[in-house]
Backbone:
């Protein structure tokens, strides 16, 4: 996958302040406020910063956690997983493999009964939904 590299100024010009805070500064949107939390629309979820395909609606499920949840990325090469020890806990951060934007976190073994037993908890502001035609 080709890496997308931009300066901080270029990202600030492209993204609105909330998108920049989450995607480039690893922020988190407030739970139950994102536009895709409860969306059932069939389609492809792309990185809001670079347009790379990240998730498909077939893997989205209701976790009732306050953010869109997926049990797998559309391609394992689409995301990068990074150990995150911030906020006094050990988590796994999910980033876009193409542009290194923060997407959210992935959790394993929570008992949701998904095929992978993973919950990719992703900020809506990190995504753009491309509805199927």
Residues:
């Amino acid at each position: 996958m080709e890496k997308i590299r931009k300066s901080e100024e270029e990202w600030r010009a492209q993204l609105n302040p909330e998108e920049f805070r989450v995607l480039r500064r690893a922020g988190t949107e407030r739970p139950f406020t994102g536009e895709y939390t409860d969306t059932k629309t069939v389609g492809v979820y792309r990185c809001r910063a670079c347009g790379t395909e990240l998730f498909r609606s077939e893997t989205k499920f209701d976790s009732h956690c306050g953010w869109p949840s997926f049990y797998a990325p559309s391609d394992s090469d689409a995301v990068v997983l990074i150990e995150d020890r911030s906020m006094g806990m050990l988590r796994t951060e999910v980033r876009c493999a193409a542009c290194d934007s923060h997407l959210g976190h992935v959790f394993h073994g929570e008992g949701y009964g998904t095929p992978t037993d993973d919950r990719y908890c992703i900020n809506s502001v990190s995504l753009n939904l491309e509805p199927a035609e």
Q: What stands out?
A: The mean pLDDT is 94. The chain has one domain: 8-131. The beta strands are 43-47, 53-56, 60-61, 69-70, 79-84, 91-96, 102-108, 118-122, 127-131.
